[in-house]
C-alpha cells in the first residue's frame, strides 16, 4: 500500500450536485436514481453544504411507504428547503490530501463523506465506501 497516495486517486470526480433552489423531492429522486448517499450543495462551483440521504430520512417517511404513495413525502418535503436540511460548516480536504489523512478524519467524525475542494472549488467527493473499496483492492 502506498503511504502518500493522494485522495484524488480514489475520489469521485464527476460529482452530482444540488443547488439551494432545488427541492427535496428532486434530491430524493437523485439519491435513488444514482444510488448515492451524499450530494454536495453548490453555488456555482463553490460548496455551500452537504445533503445526505439520512438527512431526508430524518424528516420524511421516504422508506416507510410504497413508491406509489409519494404524497406523504411531498407534503413533508414542501415544508423544508435544502438549506434548512443540509449540513453546513463542512470539513473539506484538498485533492492532494493523502488517503491516510482522509481515513483518519472519517474515522473520528460522525459523517461518511468529505467534499474535496481546491481553490474554493468543489473538485470531488470521497466517501467511506471509496476508502473501503481502495483497501479491498490492496488485498
Question: What do you see in this structure?
Answer:
Helix content is 35%, strand content 19%. The chain has 139 residues and is an alpha+beta fold. The chain has one domain: Roll (CBS-domain). The strands form 2 sheets. It has a two-stranded antiparallel ribbon with strand order 1-2. Strands 3-4 form a two-stranded antiparallel sheet. The protein is globular, with a radius of gyration of 16 Å. The N and C termini lie close together (9 Å). The model has no long low-confidence stretch (mean pLDDT 89).
Text of the CATH class: Alpha Beta
Would you give the CATH topology?
CBS-domain
Q: Into which percent range does the helicity of residues fall?
A: 25-40%
- What pattern of helices and strands is seen along the backbone? HEEHHHHEEH
Residue runs with pLDDT of under 50 for 5 or more positions = none
CATH superfamily membership, which one? CBS-domain
Termini distance?
Answer: 9 Å
Largest sheet, if any?
A: 2 strands, antiparallel
The best one-word shape is globular
> How many β-strand stretches?
4
Radius of gyration: 16 Å
Strand fraction band? Answer: 15-25%
Decide which structural class fits the backbone. alpha+beta
**What is the domain tally?**
1
Biggest sheet: strands side by side, in what order? 1-2
Task: Provide mean pLDDT, rounded.
Answer: 89
Amino acid at each position: 500500500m502506498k503511504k502518500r497516495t493522494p485522495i484524488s486517486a480514489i475520489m469521485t470526480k464527476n460529482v452530482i450536485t444540488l443547488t439551494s433552489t432545488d427541492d427535496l423531492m428532486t434530491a430524493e429522486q437523485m439519491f435513488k436514481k444514482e444510488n448515492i448517499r451524499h450530494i454536495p450543495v453548490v453555488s456555482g462551483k463553490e460548496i455551500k453544504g452537504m445533503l445526505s440521504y439520512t438527512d431526508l430520512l430524518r424528516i420524511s417517511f421516504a422508506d416507510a411507504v410504497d413508491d406509489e404513495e409519494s404524497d406523504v413525502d411531498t407534503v413533508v418535503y414542501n415544508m423544508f428547503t435544502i438549506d434548512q436540511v443540509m449540513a453546513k460548516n463542512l470539513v473539506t480536504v484538498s485533492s492532494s490530501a493523502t488517503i491516510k489523512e482522509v481515513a483518519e478524519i472519517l474515522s473520528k467524525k460522525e459523517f461518511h463523506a468529505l467534499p474535496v475542494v481546491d481553490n474554493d472549488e468543489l473538485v470531488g467527493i470521497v466517501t467511506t465506501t471509496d476508502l473501503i473499496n481502495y483497501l479491498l483492492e490492496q488485498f
